[in-house]
Amino acid sequence: MERLELKEIQRLEGHTDRVWSLAWNPVTGHNGVPLLFASCSGDKTIRIWEQNLSSGVWSTKAVLDEPHTRTVRSCAWSPSGKLLATASFDATTAIWENVGGDYECVSTLEGHEHEVKSVSWNASGNLLATCSRDKSVWIWEVLPGNEFECVSVLQGHTQDVKMVKWHPTMDILFSCSYDNTIKVWADEGDSDDWQCIQTIGEPNNGHTSTVWALSFNASGDKMVTCSDDLTLKIWESENIGMQSGGGFRHWRHLCTLTGYHDRTIFSVHWSREGIFASGAADDAIRLFVDDNESQVDGPLYKLLLKKEKAHDMDINSVQWSPGEKPLLASASDDGTIKVWELVPQR
Q: Which sign does the torsion angle of CA 44, 8, 103, 213 carry?
């Protein structure tokens, strides 16, 4: 494999506080639609960034500065790319709709007692999950007319829940927490009876400190998690395609990547091409790939490259873009976002 490097395309400034999270609009970047992503910050705003098709230059398309009154911690686009959900420390989740290029707040979801930390849409866009410092995970059903109804409140974590993420093909929800565990939730039937079907913790090769984030590979049979324990862990489920009826597959530990990070790993994201990126408190971005020559008992993934000093401060989020030629975007405590391209080393 030829040697690759991460080349910085552009540094985006505009936020006046740390940038917590970013999310690419999934329907952009192909068929002549310019790439677009949202970012959210401690400055209480959400910014929408778009790439100019002819020049390739990124610029701010919109700044959403209502209705959140505190830090906006997380943002996520619906699968159709029409709605944007934003989760805030003000204990609310706002839903934005793109109406002819203007973003309107069409709904505000209330119910969490504390800061909302993360928000995620399922693959079909009819369910939304939120999680909070109040230790709960809420599942909302998307109804006509931009109405949202809470169909389940999931209690199970014993600490702050850092992230929620739906499986890419099935209505199974994953949450990770300050209690060092990942929980897997499913609706056992059609009764909105959501239950925890698996807890991945220290006794089964799980993390020994806060789990900050998780991401799935393209086919959804593998998951990577990152933690305050300085490791990345890869998990696999049995063949999803073999599933019939209600039998849920358990996730099992595949390997642990240790020794690559010496500070907390805050973000991890798996690209459709099979490369996963990590963003950490040491200001560096690392990329990992399948290790085809791995030893029998060794990790099955290897470090592809490490970008030192990618930012001036902690990296809170790394996200691969949709589209034909994926870009990587990173968000940092330094208040900036950077867009990167993976290119052959010169």
A: negative
Cα gap 82→330, rounded to integer Å? 23
- Distance CA(329)–CA(319), nearest Å, equals 5
pLDDT digits (tens, 9 = 90+) for 52-91: 999 999 999 999 998 999 999 999 999 999 999 999 999 9
**Side by side, which strands form the sheet with 301-307?**
265-270, 276-280, 285-290, 301-307
Over residues 207-226, the pLDDT tens digits come to 999 999 999 999 999 999 99
3-state secondary structure at position 14: coil
Query: Under 8 Å CB-to-CB from 282, ≥6 apart: which residues?
Result: 261, 262, 263
Distance CA 302, CA 305 (A): 9
Cβ atoms of 224 and 213 within 8 Å: the answer is no
Among residues 16, 75, 8, the alpha carbon closest in space to that of 311 is found at: 8
SS3 11: strand
**Ranges 56-60, 104-108, 288-292: which has the least confidence:** 288-292
Element counts in the chain: helices (H) and strands (E) = 0, 28
Distance of CA 190 to the CA centre of its chain: 27
C-beta separation of 209 from 179 below 8 A:
no
Find tokens 């060092």 and name the residue: 180
Phi-psi region of 77 (alpha: psi -120 to 50; beta: other; left: phi over 0): beta
SS3 category, 8: strand
Task: Find all residues with CB under 8 Å of 84, minimum gap 6, and list them.
Answer: 23, 38, 46, 75, 76, 77, 78, 95, 96, 97, 98, 103
> Which token pair is 82?
């029409």
Check: CB of residue 237 under 8 Å from CB of residue 231: no
Q: What is the DSSP string of 28-86?
A: -SSTTPPPEEEEEETTS-EEEEEE-TTT--EEEEEEE-SS--S-EEEEEE-TTSSEEEE
